[in-house]
Amino acid sequence: MEFLWAFVIGGLICVIGQLMLDLFKLTPAHVIVSLVVIGAFLDSFGLYDKLIKFAGAGATVPITSFGHSLLHGAMAEANQHGYIGLAMGTFTLTSAGITSAILFGFIVALIFKPKG
Amino acid sequence: MGSINDPKQYKKNIKAFHPKTNYFVSCLKAFIVGGFICLIGECIEKFYLAFTDFNQNTVGNPTVATLILISSLLTGFGVYDKFGQFAGAGTLVPVTGFANSITSAALEHKSEGVVLGIATNLFKLAGAVIVFGVVSAAVFGIIRLTINNLLG
Amino acid sequence: MKLGKQSWRFSNAVYLASTGTTAGPLEKQGPIGTEIDKTYDKLHCGEKNWEAAERTLMREAVDICLKNVNKKPEDVDFFMAGDLLNQVVTANSIAKEHQIPHLGMFGACSTSMQTLALAAQFVDSGFADSVLTAVSSHNATAERQFRYPTEYGGPRPKTATFTVTGAGASLVSKKESPIRITEATVGRVIDWGIKDVNDMGSAMAPAAADTITHHLEDTGREPSDYDMILTGDLSSVGSPILREIMWDRGIDINGVHQDCGLMIYSPNQPVFAGGSGAACSAVVTYSYVANQLKRGKLKRVLVVATGCLHNPIIIQQKESIPCIAHAVVLESIGGE
């Protein structure tokens, strides 16, 4: 069941992105940015956490979870250190994702050649 | 409708000449491919839960890193952009799309050198995601923190 | 000699003495692939980066064009060339290599006919005995300059066009040869408010219509006086729009209109609405069309090269796309 919900919820978030592309004629960059902001917003009231509990990777793999993780990490620190904590905690939960994206991107760029 | 030779109405009058987008088909493709990527993510997650000491709260880290590795390699082999044209948002929205935007920009600017080419352009496309993520997290964070403080 | 408002008639005989064309792998597999002088199986054309590959395409096209008539670069008076890259770097590099007095040209995808018209005018007026022209475009150099990195997976809509990888060169001279250049019409910049760079066919159709309309007025001809009215890169979206605009003006070009962007690829190739780019009109005109004219299968052709004169910055600033079209008339002097 977990696998099915991961597929369905993940797929539905992509459908929202597709509708932004097709219906609202947004550029890919605008679609991604919008989804990140929506993800951050849904962190409020723990909504996104409920979605993760329900759909697992279906909620953590789409880019919406990036916005959620940024805010989630920031709020965790903020509970201890107040407003300064927001800045301290922003990247705590997304560190693995950003670091691996930079590292793998860099290594792949060194090794491969663009194919066109 | 008016004449097609009216420059002011041109944009409206030529709509009939544009190929129709089949919303259902494009959404179905996005759903299946995007869902499939999340399904792979779920499998990777289950793998790490079973064979490593990551728990339910931390398993997202290796899962996302693994997907990013796969996506970076597919970009290097020159196939991710082909998937992207087929799947639309299906390959754009998952974190693999984020990795693709970083790797493709780095790869494309390789010819201008490692520092000025690869490193400078790495965040050419993905930079917007991080900027908006951080700014929106700060805005929502400040609002939530202020409300929490006010409510005591 | 000036003809009407914006056309020229070359009263002294001016000829398209030679042509040279090169192209990449997708163009090779296209319907006119066998007509192209030299094709490459790899998009890199054996070079280390895309820009170098584009230079190779133009260098080879120029070499083939000169070799066809046993000429050396020093036998040519002037070189007029352009491409789509910033500061027309490809053309400038080739001009540096060949050391022919050089005029860099930019008319985006209309550069092919811009250079041909001016070359013909130079020869007609006696300011040159022979002028070499060349244009090039490369799918990957254009992608990375105007759009996204080539490996980026962001999808493009169906109205988008696909930049042709290739180059076309031509030698214009007084020496009699099978193809004569008889008239040219210089286009005006037309902008009917299209802002979508993924819909250049719609943006350019009014520019093509303007140039064709004025050409017919200036020369006093009818569309039926031509065997073919060939537009540069209007694609499957812009072509029917052009025919509709002309029909609405009371000019029926339905029977004679063709588009290079639709001739260079077959419909089952993954090229969205069709080909575009400076090389699109040049490769088709200087290979397939030139061969048909040489054999006398086509008698008189109006080539209308269309171009979008925007850059990525003004598009992001929400400006609309200024477009232009230049036309040149090519006539077969007999054939068999």
TrEMBL record, chain A:
Sorted UniProt keywords: Membrane, Transmembrane, Transmembrane helix
Protein name (Swiss-Prot/TrEMBL): Stage V sporulation protein AEB
Species for this entry: Pullulanibacillus camelliae
Matching Pfam families: SpoVAC_SpoVAEB
Record-linked InterPro entries: Spore_V_AE, SpoVA
Residues that span the membrane, as ranges: 6-24, 31-48, 54-71, 83-112
From TrEMBL, chain B:
InterPro entries: Spore_V_AC, SpoVA
Transmembrane segments: 21-42, 62-80, 127-147
Keywords: Membrane, Transmembrane, Transmembrane helix
Record carries keyword Manganese: no
UniProt superkingdom: Bacteria
PANTHER family named among the record's database cross-references: STAGE V SPORULATION PROTEIN AC, STAGE V SPORULATION PROTEIN AC-RELATED
NCBIfam families: spore_V_AC
Official protein name in the record: Stage V sporulation protein AC
Organism (species): Pullulanibacillus camelliae
UniProtKB/TrEMBL annotation, chain C:
Cited InterPro entries: SpoVAD, SpoVAD_sf, Thiolase-like
Pfam families: SpoVAD
A GO term, aspect molecular function: acyltransferase activity
Protein name: Stage V sporulation protein AD
Source species of the chain: Pullulanibacillus camelliae
